[in-house]
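Database export, one record per block. Field names are fixed; values are copied verbatim from the stored entry.
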Amino acid sequence: MSEANPSPVSPAGPTENERTWGMLAHLAAFVGLVVPVIGNVAGPWFVWMTKRGESSFIGEQARESLNFNITVSLAAIVCAFAALVFIGFLLGSALIIAWLVLTLTAAIRASEGVHYHYPFSLRLVK
């Protein structure tokens, strides 16, 4: 449970620009509200690809967001199949709420300069 044990921030901490981009890496997942299916992965992927070389903090937060949103996408596929037996609607609703809450929590923590790690995420992108 990474939220209970966030990584310590270095004494100097991330700069204001790094914290802003770290926050935007998480909020970029909301592109999925405009472009369903791939938008929630495309936003964090774009930030990761363009900004990971500028700062380890930005790269780490963008990678965390990307991994989490890939995990959510895979879970959404499972929910879609489970909807055939009606339990998927309940699971899908819970998934959407969890996605919103965790994404906003991660964005807030990154804006504070905390190295946030999602509690439920496959680490596919390293």
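Remark 1: Residues 16-108 form one domain.
Remark 2: The chain has one domain: 16-108.
End of record.
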